[in-house]
Amino acid sequence: MPPEQPLVQVRNLYKSFSRGSETIDVLQDLNLDVGHAEFLALMGPSGSGKTTLLNLIAGLDQPTSGTIIVGDQVISEMSESELARWRTRHVGFVFQFYYLLPVLTAYENVELPLLLLPLSRQQRRKQVETALDLVGLSNRMHHRPGQLSGGQQQRVGIARAIVTDPELIVADEPTGDLDTRSAHEILTLLETLRAQLGKTIIMVTHDPKAAARAQRVLHLEKGQLVLDTAASPLLTAEA
């Protein structure tokens, strides 16, 4: 695809949920482009639709109407089974509470997404070790989550997100459960993944300092985009 074409294109997006006889409009006629290797932060009050938008772009949910294109795939037209296959190869997920399996080592947690792909054990080992090396945890690969700090657990989560080499990483409050130092390290790692590996990152956050580390900040209010600003260099330096 032409390099000038955005990686993510959202057009006339609506998302509604039913609660009894009531219809709740979460996203309304939303349009958005996200470029290749862009680090985008989504902000807004609780209930504004941030996580709903993130889930739609990541193929975890389907819109009520509208179009979502990621790469050259119109994911808004995919079935649930097609979305599941697409997510495995094209999207990496980073969560606030890590969602690591406590009985598995860091290596085994990172390996999990690869078990869905037709890879040999040797191929899986190479990709897992590469991912753990990228996040600086090669010396912790045989430790279980309970033996790791919060920041280290989130690094395992990021290694799991990138182990399939997806072009898109979606992060939902990735620093929300971390202390200031660990949060700074995780944001620096996300910046490195964008700058050195060309990953496109969409991050939901309530923290203005975390958002300032992104290249662009979008604000949602009642399901609509209300502000589009570039991240402040001053805030980035102080984050």
Automatic annotation (TrEMBL):
CDD domains found in the cross-reference section: ABC_MJ0796_LolCDE_FtsE
Origin organism lineage: Bacteria, Pseudomonadati, Planctomycetota, Planctomycetia, Gemmatales
One GO CC annotation: membrane protein complex
Protein name (Swiss-Prot/TrEMBL): ABC transporter ATP-binding protein
Coiled-coil stretches noted in the UniProt entry, renumbered to this chain: none
PANTHER family recorded: ABC TRANSPORTER ATP-BINDING PROTEIN, IMPORT ATP-BINDING PROTEIN
Residue ranges of every copy of the ABC transporter domain listed in the record: 8-239
UniProt keywords, alphabetically: ATP-binding, Nucleotide-binding, Transport
Molecular function as annotated in GO: ATP binding; ATP hydrolysis activity; transmembrane transporter activity
InterPro entries: AAA+_ATPase, ABC_transporter-like_ATP-bd, ABC_transporter-like_CS, ABC_transpr_LolD-like, MacB-like_ATP-bd, P-loop_NTPase
Entry's family note: Belongs to the ABC transporter superfamily. Macrolide exporter (TC 3.A.1.122) family.
Species the sequence originates in: Thermogemmata fonticola
Source species, domain of life: Bacteria
